[in-house]
């Protein structure tokens, strides 16, 4: 029974891929993160046909502090309040967990979001303008010929004259085209921590960042609607310190 379902699904995917091949897309965007989704949206606005290929099934969790700067939010021509977790007016900075420096502003500085919700919201905006999303399609190979760029996934081969790699830090597109080899990567660790309401209230509208506690990086607290995203990131070359220093940062916040 289960084999039949898998076989049917695989046939359906092949048929879907065939139909998509027949209906050619002006642009294939690989990756449905904020870069891919907003590009698909902008192309859709201009009447350009887009196929978005995403390796994960959406919506998908992503390890991220989820801070959208107000400058970035202004680049969008639609409102993001329905997917906003908190609005940040205050920044506090410490150096090596020392005395905090506070900065306040009368206008929003940052909107916090959960990336599963936010990224999916952006993709849906692009779909409303005609972009076709195929999720669960991990791109494995790119082949460039004189007339086409051919994009392979496990189930399908797609073709377009224009392919955009928006597949994030470990981009297959960049790898296939021999780019980005000299980049030093960053690693991050984050905890989504549910705290009592009184504790959450202390962090409302405030992002906190420590510089210096994490060698080659920094640590953060980003408030969300019902919890705190507390994390740290650093250069891969300093990653050996990350777990211990992240724990030290957590302890310094005295949340019990
Ligand atoms: C711990 C941490 C905290 C961060 N906090 C912030 C923050 O607060 N504010 C901020 O602005 N930035 C933050 N960033 C950076 C932010 O996450 C990235 O800048 C942002 O995600 C880049 O968007 P993107 O669309 O280019 O790539 P991504 O968001 O990485 O999206 C790439 C998409 O491509 C898909 N994909 C990958 N490979 C393939 C493949 N082979 N085939 C098909 N699809 C594929 C992925 O599944 C993903 O959906 C943080 C990063 C980390 C690691």
**Averaged pLDDT, please?**
91
Largest pleated sheet: 6 strands, mixed
Q: Give the uncertain stretches in residue-range form.
A: none
Using only C-alpha atoms, the radius of gyration works out to 21 Å
Describe the 3D structure.
With 256 residues, the chain is an alpha/beta fold. The protein has 2 domains: 2-61 and 117-176, 3-Layer(bba) Sandwich (FAD/NAD(P)-binding domain); 67-113 and 184-252, 2-Layer Sandwich (D-Amino Acid Oxidase, Chain A, domain 2). The protein has 7 helices and 16 strands. It has helices at residues 2-22, 34-45, 70-75, 115-128, 172-176, 197-203, 242-252, and strands at residues 27-30, 50-54, 67-69, 86-88, 90-95, 101-104, 110-112, 132-135, 139-144, 149-153, 157-160, 162-165, 186-193, 206-211, 217-223, 228-235. The strands form 4 sheets. Strands 6-5-14-15-16-13 form a 6-stranded mixed β-sheet, covered by helices on one side. Strands 8-2-1-12 form a 4-stranded parallel β-sheet. Strand 5 and strand 6 form a beta hairpin. Helix 2 (34-45) runs parallel beside helix 4 (115-128). The protein is globular, with a radius of gyration of 21 Å. It starts with a helix and ends with a helix. Flavin-adenine dinucleotide (FAD) is lined by residues 30-36, 53-56, 63-67, 138-139, 166-168, 172, 188, 190, 231, 233. This is FAD-binding domain-containing protein. Pfam families: FAD_binding_3 (PF01494). GO terms for molecular function: FAD binding; oxidoreductase activity, acting on the CH-CH group of donors, NAD or NADP as acceptor. It comes from marine sediment metagenome.
């Amino acid at each position: 029974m289960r084999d039949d379902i898998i076989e049917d699904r695989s046939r359906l995917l092949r048929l879907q891929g065939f139909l998509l091949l027949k209906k050619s897309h002006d642009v294939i965007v690989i990756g449905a993160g904020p870069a891919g989704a907003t590009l698909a949206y902008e192309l859709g606005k201009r009447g350009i046909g887009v196929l978005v290929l995403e390796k994960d099934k959406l919506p998908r969790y992503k390890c991220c502090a989820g801070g959208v700067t107000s400058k970035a939010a202004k680049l969008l021509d639609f409102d993001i309040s329905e997917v906003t977790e908190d609005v940040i007016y205050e920044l506090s900075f410490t150096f090596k967990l020392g005395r905090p420096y506070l900065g306040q502003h009368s206008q929003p500085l940052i909107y916090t979001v959960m990336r599963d919700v936010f990224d999916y919201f952006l993709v849906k905006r692009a779909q409303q303008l005609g972009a076709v999303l195929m999720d669960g399609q991990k791109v494995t190979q790119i082949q460039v010929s004189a007339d086409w760029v051919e994009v392979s996934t496990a189930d399908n081969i797609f073709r377009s004259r224009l392919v955009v790699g928006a597949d994030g830090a470990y981009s297959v597109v960049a790898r296939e085209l021999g780019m980005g080899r000299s980049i030093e990567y960053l690693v991050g660790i984050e905890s989504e921590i549910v705290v009592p309401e009184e504790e959450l209230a202390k962090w409302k509208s405030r992002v906190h960042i420590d510089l210096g506690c994490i060698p080659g990086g920094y640590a953060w607290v980003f408030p969300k609607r019902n919890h705190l995203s507390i994390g740290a990131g650093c250069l891969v070359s300093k990653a050996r310190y990350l777990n211990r220093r992240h724990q030290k940062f957590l302890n310094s916040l005295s949340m019990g």
